[in-house]
């Protein structure tokens, strides 16, 4: 990402400074920054204003409802993002390590799902079940996949029909997206969040969400199909597709 894009950071005040790059999603340039004397996180990407408005609105809603999430820090004139850049509070904590930690993550995800039933879809995104009828949505292009692979993915997604939908975090089983302390669980990196079947978030290590065998199988197959489609056709995508049963 060209440093030119980071010139937008001046809109958070004269004393703002970039500190060091953080490991973030492949789609963004993520840095620790200092704003008003406090450590924060800046994320620069190519998302549309409508997309960023959806994400920042969601994070403010979850923060108001008591979930620990990165909260957008406004520019000096009150905007929550500028020129593709979002600046958010830095969230302390470490990754989940034990089965008990992952159970706490599952409880937090269930709270997220409860707080966002009926939430509108992220602009330009599609849910798994939408992809039964359309070919493209954000980073997914089913037209780029072999027809047999698409048929496998769609068979996995078809099994989600009728299950509860809400906002899903999108990648909560990555320990790097969770920050745990003794008294709270925080979810960070909401770049993949969108509206989909809630169970897709609950395919966790140790089956920490306690899904029954049938529900876990449906969610695990659909989740593997989603990741194969999003990442197609790198090595990881091919590995994930191999986990989706043939039709």
TrEMBL record:
Organism domain of life: Bacteria
Residue ranges constituting the Aminoglycoside phosphotransferase domain according to the UniProt record: 19-208
Keyword annotations from UniProtKB, A to Z: Kinase, Transferase
Matching Pfam families: APH
GO MF term set: kinase activity
Name of protein: Ser/Thr protein kinase RdoA (MazF antagonist)
UniProt organism field: Bradyrhizobium huanghuaihaiense
């Amino acid at each position: 990402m060209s440093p030119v894009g980071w010139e937008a950071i001046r809109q958070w005040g004269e004393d703002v400074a970039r500190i060091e790059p953080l490991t973030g999603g492949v789609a963004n340039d993520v840095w620790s920054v200092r704003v008003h004397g406090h450590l924060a996180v800046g994320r620069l990407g190519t998302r549309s204003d409508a997309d960023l408005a959806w994400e920042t609105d969601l994070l403010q809603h979850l923060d108001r409802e008591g979930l620990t999430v990165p909260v957008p820090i406004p520019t000096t004139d009150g905007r929550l993002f500028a020129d593709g850049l979002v600046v958010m509070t830095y969230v302390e904590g470490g990754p989940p390590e034990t089965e008990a930690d992952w159970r706490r993550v599952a409880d937090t995800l269930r709270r997220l799902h409860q707080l966002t039933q009926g939430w509108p879809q992220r602009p330009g995104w599609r849910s798994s079940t939408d992809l039964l009828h359309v070919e493209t949505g954000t980073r997914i292009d089913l037209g780029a996949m072999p027809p047999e692979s698409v048929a496998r993915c769609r068979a996995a997604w078809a099994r989600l029909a009728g299950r509860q939908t809400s906002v899903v975090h999108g990648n909560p089983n990555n320990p790097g997206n969770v920050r745990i302390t003794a008294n709270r669980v925080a979810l960070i990196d909401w770049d993949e969040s969108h509206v989909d079947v809630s169970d897709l978030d609950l395919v966790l290590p140790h089956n920490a969400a306690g899904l029954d065998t049938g529900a876990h199988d449906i969610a695990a197959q659909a989740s593997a199909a989603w990741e194969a489609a999003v990442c197609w056709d790198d090595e990881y995508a091919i590995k994930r597709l191999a986990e989706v049963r043939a039709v």
